[in-house]
Predict the structure.
Amino acid sequence: MPSYSNRPSMRSPFETQVHFLTELARAGVDALRRLSELNLQLARQLNDDAINATRALVSCNDPFQLAAVTARAAEPALDHLRSYQRQLGDVLSGARLDLARGAGAPQVQFRPATDSAAGRDSQQAPHHQPE
């Protein structure tokens, strides 16, 4: 079976589709890389926060102060979660823009000669919409 890319009539549409899919895959992989890095950073920060909170709780001698120590120890973790939420929004909006930019690449739709020869008879009726 001959390769589509070797046919002169198919080369341009084929290359356009390959370019589109390559850009779409690149944008998706890049977004996943940024998301993975962000998740790893959060996991490290929360791990450090948990260790510090445990140390603070263990070193607390007054049982009546445990609630105050716990509240102070939780503040860095809450700050890290807020920061993560902002950064996650930035990553997702950036990924959406990258994917939209990739989807906006010019595409040439290939229609075999048999479709144009069949004319209107080959078109299907639109689906019935409930009223």
In short: The mean pLDDT is 78.
